[in-house]
Amino acid sequence: MSGNLKGKVALVTGASRGIGKGIAIALGDAGALVYITGRSVNADNSTDSVSGSLLDTKSAVEKAGGICIAVTVDHSDDEQIKSLFEQIDREQNGQLGVNARNGINCTLSLHSFLHLA
């Protein structure tokens, strides 16, 4: 990418794997400083059976030429979310230009949604 986000601060929730990881890499490649969040800091402490971690994503963003700050956040905990935004505000002087809300908190299983199809 061209670096058209140079100097911008981005936040990507749910960035341990999948779409969130891809968004974080693209933002880093475009020049943004990228904060990433998730519950799985490394593959050894993953809370589910799907591979991927914040450290994996951080490494991939940095390999693409970006700067990445990984923050462990459980998005079902309002205090952790508040703390995240306070951290970004403090560290980046209130600047947050991109917010990709990819992480979700859902207590229902996929089976619960099948009847809607």
3D architecture notes:
With 117 residues, this protein is an alpha/beta fold. The chain has one domain (9-116): 3-Layer(aba) Sandwich (Rossmann fold), CATH 3.40.50. Helices cover 34% and strands 16% of the residues. It is built from four helices and four strands, in the order βαβαβαβα. The chain has helices spanning 18-29, 54-63, 78-91, 110-113, and strands at 9-12, 33-38, 67-72, 98-100. It has a four-stranded parallel sheet, with helices on one face. Helix 1 (18-29) packs parallel to helix 2. The longest helix is centred in the C-terminal third of the chain and has 14 residues, at 78-91. The radius of gyration is 15 Å and the shape is globular. It starts with 8 loop residues before the first strand and ends with a helix. The mean pLDDT is 83.
Defining key terms:
alpha/beta, Rossmann fold, 4 strands, 4 helices, 34% helix, single chain, 117 residues, four-stranded parallel beta sheet
Number of helices: 4
Give a quick account of the main beta sheet: strands, pairing sense, barrel closure. 4 strands, parallel
**What average pLDDT do the residues reach?**
83
The CATH class designation is Alpha Beta
Quaternary: single chain
CATH architecture: 3-Layer(aba) Sandwich
Rg to the nearest angstrom? 15 Å
Helical amount among residues, as a percent range?
25-40%
Question: Low-confidence runs (pLDDT<50, min 5 residues)?
Answer: none
Strand order of the largest sheet: 3-2-1-4
- Supply the CATH superfamily name: NAD(P)-binding Rossmann-like Domain
Taken together, the total number of domains comes to 1
CATH-assigned fold name:
Rossmann fold
Task: Based on Cα principal axes, name the global outline.
Answer: globular
Which class best fits the helix and strand makeup?
Answer: alpha/beta
Approximately what portion of the residues adopt beta-strand conformation?
15-25%
Question: H/E element string?
Answer: EHEHEHEH
